[in-house]
Structure formats: C-alpha cells, structure tokens
Amino acid sequence: MDRVRKFFYYISKKKLTIGSAAFIIGATYLVNNFLGLIREIIIANKFGAERTADIFFASFKIPDFIFQLLILGALSSAFIPVLVESLTEKGEDEGQKVANSVLNLFLIAAVFFAIIMYFLVPYIVPIVFKGFFKYTQETGFDVYKVTVNTTRLMLLSPIFFCLSGIFSGILNSYKRFVAYSLAPVVYNISIIFSALFLTSYFKVPVYGLAVGVILGAVLHMLVQLPAVLRTGYRYRPIIYFYKGKVDKIIRLMIPRTITIGIGQINILVDSFVASFFIGGISVITYANDIQTVPSVVFGIAIATAIFPYLAESYAKKDMAEFLKSFSWSFRRIMFFLIPATFGIIALRAQIVRLIFGFGQFNVQQWESTKWTTMTLLFFIISLVAQGVIPLIIRAFYAIKDTKTPLYIGIFVMILNAVLTLTLPFHTSLGIAAVALAFSVASFANMGLLLFYLHKKIGILDKDHKIFASTLRLVFASGLMALVIKGSLYFFDTVFITERVFGLFFQTVSSIGIATIFYLSLAYLLKCEEINFVIDKFHKKAAVIVGENKKISSNE
To answer: Domain residues of the chain, as ranges?
Structure first.
C-alpha cells in the first residue's frame, strides 16, 4: 500500500518546470511508442499486412474522426488557454465552472455523434474504403460486414476519450503531466493484451482487437482520475455558457476543429488510396508508427509541456518570456529530430526488418517489408517539420489566433490531397507515394506557419540561436550518418544479420555508437542544447530520491 500511495502521490504532484515536464512527457511517450511498436509487431506477426490487419486499422478512422473533431480541437486551441486564464484571473471556483461546463457539453456531443455514426457507418465504409471490395474473395469472410461491425464497436471509445480528454486538459492547465502521460501507456497495454489473448475467443479475430480498444479507452480515462481529483476538481452536472466560458471556447475552437477536420479528410483520402493496394493501409500504418516515435517523444512532448507556459506568458503580456520559451522549445526539438532524421534514413531497412520482418509479415510477403521500408523513407524526410509544427500551432493558440492555422491547413489539405490522389497511380512509387505527398505538405505547412507567426509577433530568432544551432546540428548529424553506415558494414562482418539475433546486435550497436558520437560532437561544437540532456540525467535521480524522502517524512 505504501508503494501505491507513493505512486499516486508522484503522478499527481504539483507544478513542474518546463524542462521537467518535457522530460517526463518525453520519457512516457517513449515508453508508449515502444508499446505501440510492440502492439504493431504482434498484429503484424498474427495478420501480416493483409486485409484482416487493414480492417482493424481502417476501423479506427471514423471513431478517431469524432474524437479529433470534438475533443482535440477544443483542448488544443481553446479549453486549456481559457481554463488557465480563468484560474489565473478569477481563481478555483471559476475554473470549476469552466471544466464542468465543457465536460458535460462535450460528453453529450460525443454520445450524440456516436449514435448518429452508428447508423451512417454502413453507408460511409463503401465510400471511404472502396478498394477493399475489389479483393473480398481473398479473405474468406465478408469484408464489408466485418468492417462495419468493427467500426460500430469502436464508436464507444470516443465517449470515454471525451472524459479522458477533459481530464487531460485540466491536468495540463495545472501543469501536472505525469498521469496525463501515463494514459496512452495503459491504452496500448490494453490493445496488446487483447491481441495476445482476446482475439482467439472470437471467430473473427479483429473483434477481439476492437474490445481491447474500448477497454483501453476506459483505462485511459481512469488512470488520470486520481490526479484530477487532487487538483481540487469536483464534478457538477452544470453547463454555464457564459460563466463557464463555453461560448468563448466554442468560438475559439471552431477554426481549430475545421483545421483538424481538414487533417482528417487527408487521412481519409490516404485510406481511400491505400485501400486499392493489398496491405496498403497496413503498410502506411506500420511505417507511420515507426516515424511517429521521435516526433511524438520529442516534438509533441516539448510542445505539450510548453503550451501552458506560452499561454501564461501571453496572458501576462510578457512577450520576451514568450519568445524565450518558444526558442528554447524549438531548439530542443531540432536537437533531437535532426539526428533522428539522418539516423532513421541510414537504418531504415534494419529497423523495419527488426520490428516487422518475421511471423506472418515475413512468411506471407517479403514485398510488405520492402514497401514499408520505402514508405518509411518518404515519411522520415519530413520528421523535423512534423516535430516543430505542433509547437508553432500552439504558439498561435497561446496568442488566441486559431484562424491563421485554419487557412494554412486548408491550403495544405488541398496540396496533400492532390498529390495523394495522383502520385501513387502515376509513378512507380506506389503506396510509398502517399508518404511522399505527406512530407511535401508537412514542409509547406511548417514554412507557412513560421512565416505568418513571424508576421504576428515579430522576429522569432532575434539572437540567431535557432539558426546557428540548426547549422551545427545538421553538420553533426551528417557525420553521424556516415558513422552509422561504417558501423553497419563492420557489424555485418561480425554478426549473421540474416538472423534476428545478428540483426538486433548490428542495429543496436550502430545506434549506440552513433548516439555517443553525436552527443560528443555536439559537446565539442558547444551546442547549448547538450546541457539540457546532461542536466536532466544528472538531476533526475536526485529529484526522485528527494521526492521519496519527502513522502517518507510526511508519513
């Protein structure tokens, strides 16, 4: 029981610094993305890259569409800034009104849309996944019926994610990030459990995976609840449009919701195109899961940690602090993602073979490994853009500008859709061209966002720290990539890389040598960002020990 109390004390601890928050979020995101890869390995091992796996990944699309539109748009652009503003200016009581009003309104909306979509799914599936039905004879079951049923099952998940999303917003506003970061971890554990054990209990295994998604959504909500209650939040069945600032939140979120809707349209276009390639949705999903790890662990983690600080700086009219925080975050994202780009490009074949190149994925189709590797390459070239976009967008939201990202998003959607609908069918790249279209659109998105943010708040890099840091990091990362290539050739003579054991040691050894080389070169080049890494590894153990002593003394 003592350990349990200590655990819940730690995950609900009070305000963290930006660095500590980024470290904790990044660490838990790393664990979560590792679990996500384990999840995909198990699914790939059981189903490969064929229609059963395609149905599971496709069935996420519509429930995720509901969550993205209703909850993510409100949280990222409106709920957190408004709640922070209410807590800062008027105190806890006003914050309670805002939190409860938003929770109740959006829970009703989530239930309503889930019911509506339940009846619309049979008509939507044949349109969005048209290519599925060209190959139904190869599956041994009714692809249409199974896809509809699986999607309907997963419509329960947005309802629980609605509650969980509001809890996340409350914790973010109070700068409590640990329980918030653990929620996706338990979600992935639930799906892994279902893939290992539940699928065998269903005649159609994909239904077992769907049950795992629903259970995961419930756990995603419950793991945050103790920390939310420790903030002083208490549920009340109220909806105050004005006192609860619901009207203000809705006005702010509409542009963001449209922006997310545009992004979701792009995802549906990608799914439509991928459905014409057998295993296409699975290949895109597997490659995307690999390249998402660094962008989430470093890009989204740092952007999430800095968001309440940006909102607070703007609320206090302290633009100097705002720009300092923005530069701090931007440079640290670049410090991790530039070498990650070079490293994954150099190691892409080894990574895909190591993660997915066995079981059904390998037995059924060597082609799946080849196309996943090629798709990963085209995804990863835009890794830096993907990493900094969440930060730039949050900077817009912190200054309460949700319209500019919307207008840029519309242009990017059109660009991405045009490229996605043309390149796969008119080039030899096939399904990998979907990733190329995504990367081109990502760079366009990043460039336009930076340009208009500069117009809004002035020079973003007055001291030229971002520019100078980027040059040093590109130089160090380029040399690191050469070290990786040399390491791969060397270890290829030491290990039998045709086997999993040899491939594992070749890949891990090359990554270890490259990491040491990059960090050492960054230190020699006097990259300021290296101090962040050194400080965190030096201080984190002392902080945890200090917390344990504090808890023990309080007991």
So the answer is: 279-546
